[in-house]
Amino acid sequence: MNSEQNKPQVLESIIRARKTDKITCEVEDRRPVPDERQQHGNAIVLHSLEVAGWAPFHYPSNDKNIHEPWRAYVLWDEEVSNLLRELTNEHRFKQSKLQKLTAACSALVLVTWIPEQRTEIREENRNIINEENLAAAAAMVQNFLLMLTAHGMRNYWSSGGDLGKPDVFELLGIPKQERLIAAVFIDYDDMKDLQPYKTCAPGKHRDKRTTNWIQQSSIHSKSP
Ligand SMILES: Cc1cc2nc3c(=O)[nH]c(=O)nc-3n(C[C@H](O)[C@H](O)[C@H](O)COP(=O)(O)O)c2cc1C
Q1: Which of the residues 48, 75, 102, 173 has an alpha carbon 20 to 30 A from that of 6?
Q2: Which atom of ligand 1 is least distant from the CA of 208?
Q3: Whose CA is nearest to atom 14 of ligand 1?
C-alpha cells in the first residue's frame, strides 16, 4: 500500500487513539519538567498549535491582524507553577481537582473563542456568528488534541472551571471579552511511562459511544 492509500488509515488510527487522560498529582508533588524534555515537548506543542490553526472558520475576528476567531494562551512549566501558586494561595479558587490537574501537567494551553463585539450587528446575526466562532474554535481544539496524540502526548480537554473566571483572565493577560472553550492539560511523560507520583483517569463517557447518532434522513414532502 502506498502512502496516499494509507492516509485514511493513519488519520483514523489517530482519531480513535485520542482519548481523555486526566492526569493528577498532589500539589506538593509537582516537579519541574527536565530541561531537555521541556525543549522537545514545548516545540511539539507549538508546532501542534500551528497545525491546529488550519481548522476552518467562517467569520473573522474583529482584529485585522489576527483573523482567526480563537486564541491560544500557552503556559510552559514555569508559568504553570506560577499559576498553581495563585490557585493554591488564593481562597477564591476552590477546585482542588483543578489544582491537582495543574500540578501534574507539563504544559497548559487555554483556548478562547471571540464573541462578536460589534453592537451595530443585529442580535440574531450576532448569535449566529458566535455559534460559528465557537464551532470553529472547537475544530481547532480537536486538531490540536489529534496532533498531541500523534506525538504520543497525553492530553485532556477540560472546560477549565475556575480558569475561565475574570480574575484568572486578568492574571494571564487574556482580554475579558474572550470566552474559554478549553483548558488543554498536556503531559510530556512517555505514553507508556507515566511518572509514579501521578495518576491517570479516563473521560466519563469514553465507553458510552455508539453509532446510533448517525441517522438516515428522509424527505417528508408537503407538496402533492
Ligand atoms: C467541550 C468539552 C469540555 C469538556 N470538559 C470536561 C470537564 O470539564 N470535565 C471532564 O471530566 N471532562 C470534560 N471533557 C472531556 C469529556 O469528559 C470526554 O471527552 C468524554 O468523557 C469522552 O472521553 P474521551 O475523550 O476519552 O473519548 C470535555 C470535553 C469537551 C469536548
Answers
A1: 48
A2: 22
A3: 158
Ordered structural domains, the chain, with CATH: 17-206 (3.40.109.10)
User: Tell me: the pLDDT tens digits for 49-87?
Assistant: 999 999 999 999 988 899 999 999 999 999 999 999 999
DSSP string for 23-44: EE--GGG--PPPHHHHHHHHHH
Residue with cell 477564591: 92
State the Cα–Cα distance between residues 44 and 31, nearest whole angstrom.
20
| pLDDT tens for each residue of 10-24 | 999 999 999 999 999
Q: Residues enclosing ligand 1, CB less than 6 A? A: 19-20, 157-159, 202-206
Q: Interhelix angle for 35-52 vs 123-150, to 10°? A: 140
Distance (Å) from CA 181 to ligand 1 centroid: 12
